[in-house]
Amino acid sequence: MQKTSAAAPIGFLTGLFFISGIAGLIYQVAWQRVLFAAFGSDLESVTIVVSAFLLGLGVGALTGGRLADRFPDRTLALFCGLEAGIGLYGVASFRLMKWTGDVFVSSPLPMIAATNFLLILAPALFMGATLPVLVAHAARCWGNVGRATGHLYAANTFGAALGALGTAFVLFHHLPLDAAILLAAGINFLVAVLAGLGLRSFA
Amino acid sequence: MRRTLGWCLAGFIGFLSLGEEILWVRLVTFVYQGIPQSFAFVLGAFLLGVAAGAAAGKRFCLKWPATPARAAGLCLVAGGGLGLAIPYLAESLSELEPLPLWLGGLIFLASALKATAFPVAHHLASDVAGARVGRSISVVYFLNIAGSTLGALVAGYVLLEHFSLGGCFVLLGTATLAVGVLALLPPNPRLVPLVLGVAGVVALSVDLHDHRIVSAFGSHGFRKIKAIVENRHGILHVADGGSKGDITYGGNVYDGRSNIDLGVNSNRIDRVYLLAALHPQPKRVLVIGLSTGAWVRVLSSFPTVERMDVVELNPGYLSLIERYPHLAPVLTDPRITIHIDDGRRWLRRNPDETFDLIVMNTTFHWRANLTNLLSQEFLGMARTHLREGGVLAFNATGSPDALATASAVFPFAYRWSNFVYAADHDLARIASDAVARMVRLSLDGKPLFDLGRAADRELLERLVNTPFVRRDDVEVEAGRPLEVITDANMLTEFRYGKPLWWFR
User: Fold this and answer.
1) Is residue B78 part of a domain?
2) What are B413's strand-pairing partners?
3) Which chain A residues have a beta carbon less than 8 Å from that of B60?
4) Which residues of A touch B381 (CB under 8 A)?
5) Quick one: B200 and B307 in the same domain?
6) Which CATH number fits the domain that encloses residue B190?
7) Contact at CB, A61 and B45, closer than 8 angstroms
């Protein structure tokens, strides 16, 4: 793995993290729809999807924190890998969720809940890991964790808000679900490529 | 102590923020009658608030690096007060225009005030100087997300099941106020039970089952509300409809009337009576959506019906049906089994069940997730559950594409009123004995029609002689090429759903 300077520009990372937030919420809104069609759209399904997404982010955050401490000089490389991982899952996700829905629909409800949970948990783990990786980097540069967290979390969440609003008010009027998910995967790959280019520039 | 305060703050604000987000989703979905953009609207406003709050929290950490919790505490107190006030502001809020701006602004403000504590929690609990900075950050983030997960579960499963939406706002608002006060005061574990005790007294002193929000935003016009059911599945309310039958609203949308009289026909109950003319002897019937129970009651009058399965998402309808003696028998009729489940999922999980009639008085096609009952994939599945000579009937609620989709799945599909009737045989040729079949319909041993009465004769003749409308005619009416609805394109919800200007 190529090493990057600990001082990879935070403005650059902020921009990437903002774009990554857009993709994250396109996924959340679109995956919910795919899973509702596959497993049902009652309160139980909604709760499973939302809590799996959140728990994935949480466990991913713990993993990301460990990665950030183990590879403090490789922030961009880690971020690049995580984004590419989300994008790869995104490409496969529509078919995977529909296929899983067909296979497990007759299973007992706890099994359906567990399947739903795992389908969302996997990519959310990657998404959750990105924040501590970038915040740890910014905190080392600035010497203030509150400032680093506030800055990067705000950028990512702002992107997420645009992603949520854009998906329901614009994207779904023009694109079917599968295409919207592929668009989000494309955004992840774009972020990964930009992070990769940054990796070379700041090395 | 500083680290513990940071961890507690992270967990509690996650819990309170996500709990309140669930309440906002319920409120906005009710106000905007379940249009699919409601969820994203709340999520967007909520996340913008989180972003702004996080940016403000960052400034607190820079400006007051030793005591940022006080500033965050003040924000939480303000946020708690705002949450507490929502049910009491509902009446005034419902009159403000443009409403989305006001609602979005409130959601933004409520989430921003709480989110200010997130960077502060990191600031207090993270170890910036050590080699474990990443881990210390991730622990705080994890606690925040664990709190968020719990908040969503508690609000969605527990609070909304036991209290009204207004009551839930009061409970979470009071809890936010308490956390804010604790963050403001000097750290002292002895203060915790005192502050929580005071908060408990405040919360319990108000009516946690008050229905102010439903009364303020309900779309029942000037009609008197006769009943309200709020549970974790949604909000149902019934308005006085006089002699034409009370009107039930599900999620603030017209759901049906209690009328079963073909002569009154205020709820176009003729669409279900027509089924007696379309099938000579239906034995097994599936009904997706119970609603007022009027449709199921009429279907139970078909003398050949041996078993009827009814699938309904919200058990709250059962308690509303109990109030109407002429409908209540659907709850005790031994031929009728009511399943509390998602209709599509129930069909998929019962692949061997087949029916003579599948009936869905589906809600408006523009509401969230209606694609799941109108799409080519679902209608194809429903077709595999029909017996020979079986008929699928569903409400297209004005969507011409719903008929196009049924036509793509079935060899024969027609529109009658706003319903689509589809089958593998040609339904348009109504049997000559259709009127005689209808005369055999009876409830509690009493025939519903008497051909000796001129009014009954006229009603039934009109019913069987009203022509079906073909797909091509509907296409001409629509003035555009009709399209097939699929799970992926969600046409009726988005492209041909409610126009965005309606969201006002």
Assistant:
1) yes
2) B422
3) 146
4) none
5) no
6) 1.20.1250.20
7) no
Single out the residue in B183, B207, B231 at which a domain terminates.
Answer: B207
Question: How far, in Å, are A112, A203, B16, B39 from residue B157 at the CA level?
Answer: 18, 50, 15, 18
Beta pairing, strands B355-360 & B386-395: parallel
Q: Cβ–Cβ of A149/B313 closer than 8 Å?
A: no
Tokens of residue A50, six digits = 């939302």
d(CA B200, CA B454): 66
Average pLDDT of the residues in B458-474: 95
The alpha carbon of residue A189 is apart from the nearest alpha carbon of chain B, in Å, by 23
Same domain (yes/no): B170, B285: no
B57 contacts A150? CB cut-off 8 A: yes
Q: Give domain limits for chain A.
A: 10-202
Say what the pLDDT of residue B483 is: 98
Q: Among A61-70, B208-217, B425-434, which stretch is predicted with the lowest mean pLDDT? A: A61-70
Say which of A58, A69, A154 has its CB closest to residue B131.
A69
Range of the structural domain that residue B161 is part of: 2-207
- Stretch B47-51: mean pLDDT: 90
Which residues of chain A does B62 touch, with a Cβ-Cβ cutoff of 8 Å?
144, 146-147
* Residue A31 CA from chain centroid, whole number: 12
Write down which residue in B207, B229, B248 finishes a domain: B207
Q: Is residue B130 part of a domain?
A: yes
Q: Are residues B175 and B269 in the same domain?
A: no
Class of domain A10-202: mainly alpha
| Pick from A127, A138, A145: nearest CA to A22 | A127
pLDDT score, position B502: 65
Using one digit for the tens of pLDDT, what is the confidence trace for B145-161? Answer: 899 989 998 999 899 99
Cβ of A39 within 8 Å of Cβ of B60? The answer is: no
User: Does ipTM top 0.95?
Assistant: no
Spatial strand order in the sheet of B386-395 = B336-340, B307-312, B284-288, B355-360, B386-395, B419-423, B412-416
Q: Same domain for B30 and B145?
A: yes
Kindly list the residues from chain A whose CB atom is less than 8 angstroms away from the CB atom of residue B141: 58, 61, 65, 128, 131-132
Does A139 contact B371 at a Cβ distance shorter than 8 Å? no
